Amino acid sequence: MVESHKNDVLVGVLALQGDFKEHVNMLVHSGVYATEVRTYTELESVDGLVIPGGESTTMARLLIAYDLMDLLRLKISAGFPIWGTCAGAILLADSAPDLDRPTIGGIPMTIKRNAFGTQVDSFETDLRFLDLEGGDYHAVFIRAPLITDIAPEVKVSAHLKNGEIVAVVKDNLMATCFHPELTNDTRLHRKFVDLVTNYKINRSNEV
Ligand code: GLN
To answer: Buried-most residue among 13, 72, 101, 191 (CB within 10 A)?
Structure first.
């Protein structure tokens, strides 16, 4: 059912800064159309959005300069699916105390930027994801944030071996602290595509 709709789905990748090209490739390999999003009209035309890793301060500034901030908040309140990865996860957090400007918000959680310090600021590890078939997911962390607090309605989908939270879901919003576009494993991209596909089907049933 969902499979047959996949080709109608268009997933956008916010392309103001950061790792957007790699995400577009991963989405295409996951069986959907994918496109870079920079303008209000482009954002209006997609069924879901990936916010890539990069620099959250720069992206937060550019979101306002490109007039996308209010539209994103409006869309989130209407259930629009967004997956924030690394800097993108910071932007989806309702609270990011060490970001010097407002986030988009949407996920009631607190996130700490550059949580792994400057010495050991990049590492790779295998994560056991809830609801992800096929075994552990190899995750690449680059100057990564850490989710330090979540509201009860936020579901943890992966944590480090010491219990620290690095991936969550809340309704149609996903946040992961690492870079899922830097491996060949498309399982998380396909999971997001399923979310977007269901959102699109439900919306067209409502009309
Ligand atoms: N350290 C970056 C920030 O705070 C995030 C790093 C990344 O996206 N790889 O925005």
So the answer is: 13
Instruction: Specify the pTM.
Output: 0.95
Residue with CA at minimum distance from ligand 1 atom 8? 53
Cα–Cα nearest to 74, from 114, 40, 102: 40
| Residue 144 structural domain | 2-206
Specify which residues 112 forms β-bridges with. 146
CATH number for the domain spanning 21: value is 3.40.50.880
Residues 65-90 as b or e (16 or more Cβ within 10 Å = b): ebebbeebeebbeeebbbbbbbbbbb
Q: Is the CB of 48 under 6 A from ligand 1?
A: no
User: Which residues form the catalytic set?
Assistant: 86, 179, 181
Of 138, 136, 160, whose CA–CA distance to 147 is shortest? Answer: 160
For ligand 1, pick from 19, 50, 90 the residue to mutate: most ligand atoms within 8 Å of CB: 90
Q: Is 22 in the pocket of ligand 1 (CB under 6 A)?
A: no
Distance CA(47)–CA(11), nearest Å, equals: 6
What is the count of structural domains for the chain? Answer: 1
CA triplet 52, 56, 58: central angle to 5 degrees?
105
Task: Give yes or no for residue 84 CB within 6 A of ligand 1.
Answer: no
pLDDT digits (tens, 9 = 90+) for 11-57: 999 999 999 999 999 999 999 999 999 999 999 999 999 999 999 99
